[in-house]
Structure formats: structure tokens, C-alpha cells
Amino acid sequence: MTWPRGVFVLILTLGALGLALPAADAGAQGPGPVAMPDEWDPEILDTLAKLPIQDGGRIKPLNTYARFALLRINGSLRFENPMAGSPSFMDRIRGRSNRMEPIEWLAACLFYPEAARHFPHFVVPDSSILDAIGVARDDRGRRGHYSYHELREGRERLFNLAQQIQEKPQEQWSGIERQIMHLTSNVHTFEMITHFFDFARMDYSIDGSGGLRMIYDETDNNYADVLARLPLVAELFNMLEDEGDTVDEERREAESNAVLALMQDLDIASRNSAGLAILPPAGILADHREWLTPADMSILVLQAPEPVEEQLELLAALEPLPGLLGDNEAFKAQLQEFHEKAAAVAGERGEYEKVPSEVGYYNANLLGWSLSLYVLSFIVVAILWFWPMNRPLNVGAFVAVAVPTILLAAAITWRCLIRGRPPVTTLYETILFITAVAVAVVLVTEYINKQKIAISCGAFLGALGMFLANRYEAREGVDTMPNLMAVLDTNFWLATHVVVVTIGYAAHLVAAAIAHVYIFGKLFGYKSGDKPFYRSMTRMVYGAICFGLVFAVAGTVLGGIWANDSWGRFWGWDPKENGALMIVLWSLFMLHARMGGYLRDFGLNIAAIVSGMTVAFAWWGVNLMGVGLHSYGFTSGVFGALLTYYVIQIFVIMCGGVAWLKDQGFVSFTAARNAPANVETSANPGK
Amino acid sequence: MMRTFFARTFDFLASYGLACVLFLFLLLLTFLGTLEQVDYGIYEVQQRYFESLIVFPILGVIPIPLPGGYLVLSLLFVNLLCGGIIRVRKDWRRVGVVIGHFGILFLLFGGFIEYQFSTGGHLTLYEGQHSDEFESYVEYEIAIYEENDGGETREWLIPGEKFTHLTPQQSRRFQGGELPFDLVLHGYRLNTEPRHISAAMGQPSAPVVDEFYLTSLPREPELELNIAGAYVTVEENPSGETHEGLLWAVSQYPYAFTASDGTRYAIELRKKRFPLPFDVTLNKFTRELHPRTEMAAYFSSDITKVQDGVSQEIHIAMNEPLRHEGYTLYQASWGPQDAGPNDPLFSTFAVVRNPADQIPLWACIVITLGLTIHFSIKLTNYLRAQSKRAAQ
Description:
The structure holds 2 protein chains of 2 kinds.
Chain A: H1 2-17, H2 42-49, E1 52-55, E2 58-61, H3 62-74, H4 89-93, H5 102-111, H6 113-116, E3 122-124, H7 128-133, E4 144-146, H8 148-151, H9 155-166, H10 175-194, H11 198-201, H12 210-215, H13 223-228, H14 230-242, H15 249-272, H16 294-303, H17 309-318, H18 328-348, H19 355-364, H20 366-386, H21 391-419, H22 427-449, H23 453-476, H24 491-523, H25 531-566, H26 575-595, H27 601-619, H28 638-663, H29 675-682
Antiparallel strand pairs in A: 1-2, 3-4
Chain B: H1 2-13, H2 16-50, E1 54-55, E2 66-67, H3 69-86, H4 95-117, E3 119-126, E4 130-146, E5 155-159, E6 171-174, E7 181-189, E8 192-196, E9 208-209, E10 212-216, E11 229-236, E12 242-248, E13 255-258, E14 264-289, E15 296-307, E16 310-317, E17 322-324, E18 327-335, E19 346-353, H5 359-391
Antiparallel strand pairs in B: 1-2, 3-19, 4-5, 4-14, 6-7, 7-11, 8-10, 9-10, 11-12, 13-14, 14-15, 15-16, 17-18, 18-19
């Protein structure tokens, strides 16, 4: 009994673990193709979106999985259905487009794989990759989108290349090698998705054998039924081996071949249907932490000490779906039945509660709204500068900046509730949090100061922060609410050290932003005679630095205390710790140099620009170094952005130098044409 | 005249100018030290930049000397004491500043105590194993002991600072004292691997002992990844008989020889060991991965601590260390990383003895309190002035 089961398990395990690329023609035996609908039934999409799955070590809605799979493969969430034809002008006016929501895209890939293979969704960032894998390039330029169908002829070479690259240490990969690995991973993900329902599309070979017919009825030709009695097939195999002498050789061979053909089918199902862990462990498996894929089930039924009826029931509810395509109502009812069952099992395990909330979070798109409203607020603030004394416009500008900040804060809170964690646990979340805090700081400053400088910086910082978050998410293409490494997974220290130190970052960025306004204002001679205007700006910069220093010091020391509790040392000169220390030291330098009279207004503002650069080094720069305990953020591609930022900041500092010379009367841009202005400028020396 | 000199010195030590220069130097050291970590690893950079009086940065073409972290922080302590505590104007508006400065002084003092008096290392145990000592991550020592069958042995130690500076070409003699032989240590290499003579192309340049010789490997930036090795020549007194041995820090068996008087001695190059005042037995190591991933979600160790015949069951986990008698044991790591489901695992505890362990926590509270008071006063004054301006 045990030996044949062992053989069964071995064959099936090899299939499931083979990192096995799906057998390409597996679906061919299934039902004939049904045309993909132009529009999906919203209820079907809603139900699909709420299906819980286990991915990346956590339970999440299928909607979240779809979102990040599309983002990773396509490089953007914006994907238009190529089958639907161009929408008419009137359709566009009515707001109708061919844009596919992520869950709609995933549904197409799962249920209409042949159509999805023609979707031009694979982003190829460099066309030289196409040359390397032998795919003809066309006029799509250096960066283009290709379909699986187009890439298929280069698939084998792509995977071979990836294998070669993988033999090198990851830090030695070139840019193009990283892109090849990324594309390979995307092709693999797509194959796992499109083949996922192969287990349900296949006809299982249980004909031509008397033995198998004794085990299975005429109607038992689906996966769940086959698995339900698979232990009996193992026994049949055992009997054929053990009692070989008493059975007619020809018959024995026929029976063995029939069993092997069935095993082969199960092997294909195991290979192909391992992409989504969509079955929560039920019944006797309830204490398992790992959710199951349909592929896992074929091994499980042989290994489990007792029949896994509840688990097979779940599988049986999932399996009919591909067969019901074309009958919308039946498909919907079946999907809802599976959802109810899966949600009930997951709910009993305490794993479903947050799933609808996460669907709601992404559907509400608070961050998208926040970005758009920040951009709008920027326009409102620009108008305000033309009519600075207009009171409704002043209130309007304040509200225009406050509303997206409230949305951003709501989004951060919602994320905390979903994951049950403090607001900052990943690099992505630092962007959201720092943006929110920075804008909140400028709103308070504006409320006190009412010079319109802070509010302008707020609109700019808000739009910039949300844009960065958006780009970072798209570039990484991974779940932004992931599980954490063991040592980081402590709510107390995440809530104290990380939150406090990032507030420090935010305040210093605000100081740097206001300092930009000061420098360019001086450079271009805006309100050149208005000393109080510039004084108040310097006061704002000074205030932000003081506020930032309190949090930077407290956050840095708290980080040390955490390190002392986790690793036994308060300070290890780790790059991230050093980054935080540099912010503290620079702030201390600025404040003491101001007290000592070494930095006047101009100096403080220029120093505040450097303070922003120090924050950028601590926040992003040290993560690029790849050493130390904190280099957990995957930051490929950030280097270019950081370098650009530094070049711009050095330019701003140089502008500051020129503005100072101008302020001192050493240079003048307007001397020849506008003598009185020059006289006025040089009459205010010594700032 | 003398008074003026002292007054001037005090003024200089208490000045904002000195404070600013020291902040900038420390900032520069931190920045350069961070960049150099990519090539030289944290341990070496920490020693060269932050625990030194003077440092020559490797970055750049001309090696410009800079004051080391130890010097800068010491001066900062003095500057803070003179300027931030003694000379600062004593009025209620500056109470926050004084409190904050006290906190920073306290923090620097804690750092000094830790630097001078703390020891650290690791204790690695498989389930069922026990130990009452831990070993350094990077420091070495040479142990010489009598080999006998399980009975009491005597042990003599040569501390690492007496030989780890040697180059492969240098040698150093250690007088035996009560031992009947002298040791000559030579061919010390920071990172090495013994190779069989058959692997050499021709005659190896290093000495060959029992068909093995030491080959130099490139230095790993992370110092703890280097494995040191050396040759040892034992010269017996007074017979002058010699024995040649090869030492390698991760060798399973020490180099052993029998002296003329029949005593068998073993010589071992190993990481420096420190005694613990209690014995630790690892009963069970637990690790949990996030489901369907290879990412560790949680790991912990159940140990038995035995001291003076009293045993106690203790659970150590990430962020939940054991603190006892000035020693702290942290759950640091585990291995082997490529272990299969049923393979035995080991648990590694970071062990630290740091008398200043809790000083940063108190300093943090004091600093935050001071800064909050100071900046709150400033903000209040600013708001008052603002409302006055608005009223005008």
C-alpha cells in the first residue's frame, strides 16, 4: 500500500514542485473556446475580487493579487482591452473606455487564456532583450508592450538566459540582466495564471481499464471526483504489482497503462494548477497554515491519514467554473457558491475578516484621488498668488490642500486597520507617511503664518510625494502591504522609532521646500524690498528645523534602543543609523551656527537645502549601498532619480550663492535697464 | 596672564564655533565611514573612523588626516559641558536647553562606558547542547592545553592583540614560562584556507606541514567572515627539539604534539572566549516561516539556565532577550540556512555585557523632554509676537 502511494506522491510532487513550467498544450483537451465577453457582469467581477487567496505569506483578496500582477507584467495599471476595438468619440465623452480593471484582466487570463495570450501587456523595457531571445522587433521603439503570442518563439531562449544569469550573484547583474529576469518572472507568472484552471479543463483518462471503471462511475471524470478515490487507484496499482503472478499478463499491462495514463493526467494538472493558493485548509486540515492550490490536492489526498472530504468539496465548487463560461447566470451562481464556501472556511480561521476591506481600499482609490486633488490644489494656489488678498480664495486654497491630505491620512489609517500594524512598515509607506506629515506641518505653519508660502509648498510637496509613491509602486510591482521579516515585526518599535524618525524627515523636507522659495524669490527679486516677508520665511525654515530636530533626535535614539533590545547593541554605525545621525548633526550644526552668528538668513536657507539632501541620503541613498541591516528596500532605478535630485539641489545652492551676491549688491541682473530697482536692492544690504 | 589663558581656553572650549566645527567633522566622518563600509565592512570602518583619535580616509587621491570619532566625541563632551551646561545663561527660558544638553552628555557618557567596558560575542548551540561561555565574532586567541582523557586540564592563552597584527612574513616568539617549550608563530594570515600539496602548482611558497600549506585568500569586507590561520613552531626547552604545526581557526581538531616528557599538548587558534556566570542548555529551537514563503516570521529558543545548581526554563525570542547578571542574550540567528525539514538546527544568541545598557533609554527621555520644553517656549513666544503683530 505504502510503496505505490509513495510512487504516486513522488510523481505528483515532482510535477508540483518542478517549478514546473506548465505543459503548454494542456488545455487543448478541454471544452471548446468560448468568446470572451466585451463586458463582464459586475457581480462576477465583485465576487472574483473578494475571493481570498494566500500569496506572499498572507491572505489577500484576489483583487490585490490581480492588481500587482498586472502592475508587474504591464508596468502600469492602465491596460486597454485590445479585443474591444476603439471606443467612439461619444463613448469617450460618456466616460466609457476599453480600460480593463485589474480583476477583469485577471479574469480574462484565468478563463480565456487563448485570448489573453494575444494581450500586448508584457512590458519590454529595452528592445535589445528581443534581439537576445530571437524575437523580431518592430516599430514599437526601445520600450514596448508585447503579447505572449509574440514572445512565445523566444520563450525557451529567455528561460535559458535567465538560468545563466541566476548562476551569478544578484549584485553583479547588469541592468539588462535584471530586466531579463523581470521579464522571465512575468512570463512565468502569466503562464501560471493562464494554466491555473487546466485541472478543470482536462478530461481524465479513466477509460479502457476495468479496474479504474470499478473505482469510478461514468460521470466521475472531473478532478475532484478523481482525487476523491485516488487512494483506491493506489491500492489497485499495489494489487497489480503484488499479485502480478495471478493476473493475466496482458490484462495486467492494460490495467497498469490505464493507471499510468491517469497519473500522467494528474501530473499535468499538478504542474499547471499550482499558481494560486485559493483553497483554505478545511476539515481535518484546519490547523494547517498553508493554503492549498488544486495541484497540492493530488498529493494531499494520498498523504492525508483520513479522507479530506471538506477540502474536496471546496475544490468541487471551484472546478465547474471554466465549463460554465457562456452561461452567465450559471457561472455567476457557481462562483458565488465557491466564494461563500471559501469565505466561510477562511472566516472560521479568522482569515477573511479584512479581505472585503482590502478590496474596498483599492476600489476607493483614495491615493489616486489624493494625487489628482493635490495637482488641482497647486492650480488653486497659483491663482491665489494673482489675487493674494482675496479671502474666499485664501480659504479655498487652504481647503484645496487640506482635502487631499485628509484623504491621504484616511488611506494610511485604512492600511493600518487592514494589516493591524502602525503606519510605516515599508519604504513605500514611508513615502505616504512623510508626504502626509509634511503637508500637515505646512498647513499648521500656514495657519499660523498666513504668508501663502507654506500652503504653496504644501501643494507642491503633496503632489510630488503622491507622484513618487505612484511611480515607486509601479516600478516595484509588489504588494505594498507585505509580511515583514521576523525582527521588524514588532508593533511597539514600528509605532515609535519608525514613526518618530520619519516625522523628523518630513519636517526637514518642509524646511528645504520653503528654503527653495526663499532662494528663488531672492534670485528673481520677488518682493525684494519686503524684509519682513523674507524674515518670516526664514522663521518658518527655522521652526521646521527645530520641530524636525526633536523628532530626528528622539527617533534616532529610539532606533538605538530598539537595536539594543533586538541585537544587543545601541549603535552599530549601520548605514541607516548613520543617515539618521547625519540629519541630527546637520540640524545641530544649523541651529548652533545660527546661535553663534555664523549663519544668517541666507546661510540658514542654503543650509536647509543641504538638510533636504541629507534626508534624501538617509531615506534612499543608504538603501542603494546594499550593506547593513536596513538595506531591506529593493531600490533598483532609484539611483537615477536620486542623482537627478542631487544635481538639481546643487544647482539650487549655486542659485542661492548668486542670489546672495545679488542681495549684497555684488551682481545685478537689471542694472542696465532698470536702474531704480538696482538702487533699491543695493539699499538693503547685509541680509 | 595665566587667568586670561585659562579664560581664553575655556571660551574656546565653550564656543559655538568649536561646536559647529565638531558637528561638521562628525558629520564628515559619518558620511565617509558610511561610504567606506561598502568595501571594508562595518567592523573595520567602526574601528578606523569612530574608535580612533585620527583617521586617514581611503576615499580620494590624497589621504587627508581627519580627527577620529573618539577624539571628536571627547571634545564634543567637553564643549557641551563648558558651553552647554557651565556657561549657558541660567534663566527659565533656557531650562529646556540645559536639560537637553544634560541628556546628550549622559548619552555620550553611556557611549564611553559601553566602549570601555562592554564585551560582546555569540553563543551557538544545537538542540541538547550546553555551554557556559561565549565567543567573540572577530577577536582571536591561541589556547594551549594539556590533552588528557576527560580529566581536568590546564590552559594557557595568548591574546589576539599579540599576533593578529603580524603579516605572513613576520614571526613572533612566545616564551613558555611554566610550559616546557617556546612557541614561534609565523605566517599568520587573516583569511586563509589549508590546501593539500597536490593542489599546488609546483612548490608552494608557504611552508608545508603534513602535506598541507596555508594559502592567502582575499580579505572579506565583513571581518567575521574571514578565517585566520598561522604556522606554529614549538621549541622544547632545554632539548631544543622542534615540532611544526599548522593552525586554522575553524579546524575541527587542534594541532597536538607529544613533548619529550611524554605530556601531550594541544594548540588551538580560535575566536576569543568569555565565561558566562551561568550555563545555558538549548532545549528547543522554533522557527516559523510565513506560509508558502521562505521568509522567517518568527524564531525563538527555549533554554534552561543553570546557576549554582538552580535551573530555570526561559524563552528567548526576537525582541525578547534574556537579561541576567549584567549579561543579555538575544535571539540573533539560526542555521544551517539550507537545512531540510528534519535536519537539526542550531540557534545563535548574541551575548552582550554592557554596563551602560539602559543609559540611552534614560538619555532619550531627558533629551526629548529638554528639546520639547525649549521649542515649546520658542513657539509660544513666536505665537505671542505674531498675534501682537496682527493686532498692530
